[in-house]
Design a protein that fits this description.
The chain is mostly beta strands. It has helices at 2-11, 39-43; strands at 31-36, 52-55, 62-72, 77-78, 81-87, 93-112, 114-115, 118-119, 124-140, 143-157, 169-173, 180-181, 183-185, 192-196. It has two helices and 14 strands; from the N terminus they run H-E-H-E-E-E-E-E-E-E-E-E-E-E-E-E.
Amino acid sequence: MKRFAAILAVLALVPALGGGALASSDNVSAMFDYHISDAFIQSLGEPTQTGAKATATSNGDHVRIVGMGTFNTAAGRATGGGTFVHTNASDVIVGFGTWTATSLVSFTPYGCGVRGGAPVPANFCGGLATMKVHASGTLVTPALGHVELDAILVVDCKLGTPPATAHEGIQLDGRPAAPNFDMTNDSGHGETLFLSRSHSGG
């Protein structure tokens, strides 16, 4: 566990990849920044962020994700990225590395400006975003070295008026090269957030 915590702490310091804004000609009202258990969420006074965690129900493996970036719902574009750590059911590290968002598949908004019935900044929003990502990492158990794979990342934030099925956090489907981490571990230590670029916050 100490080794896992040390590697995760180092990875959390790796800058998110390609997090720049999209061109000014884009539809600003369709643009959002996304944050996944990162330093920005930590700066809001939330619990210590250790990575949004999901579990593979097929074998008990876990993945922790940290990252940030932007996406455009009108254009289907996504930028940014971050880091990941993959452990098995015994918390032995399987692999670790970085991920980059390549496109937005879909976004279902839950609304903005409200968290559990209490007001928050108008541009703080909830929703369910599905993105295509590319991962580049090192496989250590077994020791196979460098690996690359494409995956589907789902980011769920329960601000606004979320459905009862919403779970704060992430899911990651790396099949067939990696497990399907299909169970979100809803935790205050792995929070997510969408920031609307529109002036109205909606």
